[in-house]
Amino acid sequence: VVAEVCDRVLVMYLGQIVEEASVETLFENPKHPYTIGLMKSIPTIDGKRGEKLHVIEGIVPSLHQIPAGCRFAPRCPIADEKCRSHPPDLIEV
User: Fold this and answer.
1) What is the DSSP string of 1-58?
2) Of 5, 20, 28, 80, which one is least surrounded by beta carbons within 10 A?
């Protein structure tokens, strides 16, 4: 639906913007690990019946215990100390 209706997309995790791009750019080349996980979880028309969708590992934190830095860091397979202490920089690609 997003690809058909929108020109630009903001991807948010726990109320924090983690990525912004044109629809075309986002679907072709997502940058943030959360966006990549979301894109992997989209079912495909040619997928096998009963095949499980991709799951983003970990548990979404409580809104009362939102982590510092990038809010996705506790679930991110590539997070480092900078991710855990500073929100992601939005850079234009």
Assistant:
1) -HHHH-SEEEEEETTEEEEEEEHHHHHH---SHHHHHHHHTS--TTSPTTPPPP---S
2) 5
In the chain, domain spans: 2-43+56-85
Query: How confident is the model over 10-55, as pLDDT tens digits?
Result: 999 999 999 999 999 999 999 999 999 999 998 888 877 778 888 9
Residue 70's contacts (CB-CB under 8 Å, 6 or more residues apart) are 16, 18, 76, 79, 83, 84, 86, 87, 88
pLDDT, tens only, 57-82: 999 999 899 999 999 999 999 999 99
End-to-end CA distance of the chain: 24
93 secondary structure, DSSP code: -
